[in-house]
Amino acid sequence: IGTTKKADDGNIFGEEEESGSSSANDSWMASSDEKKQTRQAKPLRCWYQSSFLSSIVFQLSHFRNDAERRDLISIGAAAGFAAAFGAPVGGVLFSLEEASTFFANQMLWKSLLATAIATFCIAVFSGNLTNFSVISLGDISTPNDMVLHRRLEEVPFYVIMGVGGGTLGALFNAVWKSMNKRRKIIYLRYTSDKKR
C-alpha cells in the first residue's frame, strides 16, 4: 500500500491543486457536476483509508491468527453486502452462506452489529435521512387510494393459504424422508453386490 501524505491545506492522497488565480469571478469554479463527482469520490477515499488502517491493524499479533482473520473477513463481507444493498440481515445471511466455512454463534452478533453500523453509515453519507432512502427517519405518506385496507372477509383466504403451504411443506418432508430411505436401501444393495 502506497504512502499517503497530507498537505498543509488538508489535501489527502497527493491530489494536485489547480493553478491560477483564486478570485471568485474566475471560470475555474467547480460546477455542480464536479461537486457531484467530488461527493461520489468520498466513499472511495474512505475505502483507501480503511484499507490502509486495516493493513496496519493486521500487523498486530492478535490478528495474525488465521481463525481471527477468517472471522473478520466474513464480518467484512457481511458489512459490505449490507452497505451495498441496504439489508443488514441479508448481509449476515450472505456471509453465513457464501463467505464463511465455519460460523460460530458469537460471530452472528458481531456480524449483525457490523452490518447495522454499515447500513446506518451509508445512509448518513448518502444524504438527507428525512428523504426515503436506505434508512428513512421521515414519514412515508401515500394517497388514500394507494393504502391497502385489510378487511375481515380476506382472513379466510389467508387461513387457506397458510394451511395449504403447511400441507405442502409436510408433504415435501415426507417425500424427502422416503426418498432417503430408498436411496439408503439401494446403496446397501449395490455395495453388498460389489463385495460378492
TrEMBL record:
Compositional bias per record (Low complexity), positions renumbered to this chain: 20-31
InterPro entries: Cl-channel/antiporter, Cl-channel_core, ClC
Origin: domain of life: Eukaryota
Main localization of the protein described in the UniProt heading: membrane
Location of region: Disordered: 1-34
A Gene Ontology molecular function term of the record: chloride transmembrane transporter activity
Keyword Lipoprotein in record: no
Subcellular location: Membrane
Record keywords: CBS domain, Membrane, Repeat, Transmembrane, Transmembrane helix
Transmembrane segments: 75-96, 108-135, 155-176
PANTHER family registered for this protein in UniProt: CHLORIDE CHANNEL PROTEIN (PTHR11689:SF161), CHLORIDE CHANNEL PROTEIN CLC FAMILY MEMBER (PTHR11689)
Name of the protein in its database record: Chloride channel protein
Organism of derivation: Leptocylindrus danicus
